[in-house]
Each structure stands twice: as structure tokens, then as C-alpha cells.
Amino acid sequence: MVDPRVFIALDYPSIHEVEQLLAHWQHQQKPAIKIGYQLFYQLGPDWVKQKKKEGYTIFLDLKLHDIPNTVANGVKSLMQLGVDFLTLHASGGAAMIEAARSTVEKHQTKGNQMKLLAVTHLTSMSDQMLHTELGVTESLTENVVRLAQLAHQSGTDGVICSGQEVIEIKDATHPDFLAVTPGIRPHGVDASDQQRVVTPATAIQNGADYIVVGRAITHTKQPIEAYQQICAEIQS
């Protein structure tokens, strides 16, 4: 059983561990996977292309954040990999996001409909960090919603946000504006370095379109069983 709403975060330091995990799905339908820059920097674009050919839905989480022209050129290069989702930072501003959107529209084809997702705030961010370290006076939720509105108006397909903020974001943008939620922790799994965590069921009940699950699957001895339990939970 595979649920396209569940992305497995491949946050591993080596290809051996990644391939060992993915081998569990060798003779099964392929799950959706998230590739961050730890893995991308090590294995490179050719490996990503290969995984796409093998049938994986790929969420490339590179969190692009630069001047508009540089981000546009980066998006153009990454579209050649055929990935399904790509992240950039909402805090890069409207011009940066619009440049990325323009590039996608110019180079997309029927077989390459890559979606742009804007990162609002990382799920490790807290209200205290936002106030004391970044000097933002808004509450974390208010700031996340404002960044989501900016991303929506500037042309992204959705945002990366905590499951705690999905309802407010959907209300402030559009029901079809995608909400992708990391920081997912099933009952009994330690939150670790995350601050704003929710269970898989809570994220979906709040309106999340996709969830990203890492350690609860990748740090178990029976990853397929852990994955299927999460799929069953959100389907119920």
C-alpha cells in the first residue's frame, strides 16, 4: 500500500543507507521521497534522475534563496531532473518567487509539471527565536500566514508549514493552495529538534495535502510496516 500524500524524508549521510532503505520497496510500488541537500550534495543530479526513472515521486528540498535571476537559473537547471516538487524560501520575496514561477511556466512540458513550494518557517522555529533572534514582532503563526499569502500571490503552488498552521493558511489563501507539512511525529516518537510537531492524522485533519515523515520510518527496523501504519492512519 502506497499513499502519495506521504513523503519519506531520506535524511541519510550515505548512499548505502539510502539504498538499503529503498530496497524494501524494490518489488513494490514506489513511495514518494524527499531529497534534501545533504543527499543531493553527496549523490548529485544523476542519482536524482535515476530515482525518477525508477518510478519515485520526488520532492527536491533545496530551499532556494538568492537574487531573482540566480534562483530562476537554478530552477531552470533543476527542471531538467524531472522532479515533481521543488522548494524555495518565501522570505526571498515576491520578485524571487515570481522569477521562479516564470521559469517553470516557460520550460514545463506535459511530462514535467514541477510544483513550487515556498518554505514559510522551519518547524524548528519557535516564537522566542522569531522575536529574540530575528527581531520579528508578529507571532509565529501570524508571520507564517503572511509569508504564505506572499507565496500564494507570487505564484507558488503551495507552502511548507507546520501542521499547526494549515487551517489558518488555507483560510488566508485558497483551499487548493497546497500545504506540505514536515515535523510529523506519530504517537510515541520523540520530537527531537523539532518545535511545532503534529501526528500524521492531525496534519491531515487540519487540511494538509502532503506530510513529510523521516525518522519515524527511516530509523526503524521495519520501515515498510512503519510507513504502512502511517498510511493507514491518515486514510482512516
TrEMBL record:
GO terms for molecular function: orotidine-5'-phosphate decarboxylase activity. GO terms for cellular component: cytosol. GO terms for biological process: 'de novo' pyrimidine nucleobase biosynthetic process; 'de novo' UMP biosynthetic process. Its EC number is 4.1.1.23. Substrate binds at residues 11, 34, 61-70, 123, 185, 194, 214-215. HAMAP family: OMPdecase_type1_B. This is Orotidine 5'-phosphate decarboxylase. It comes from Polycladospora coralii. The gene is pyrF.
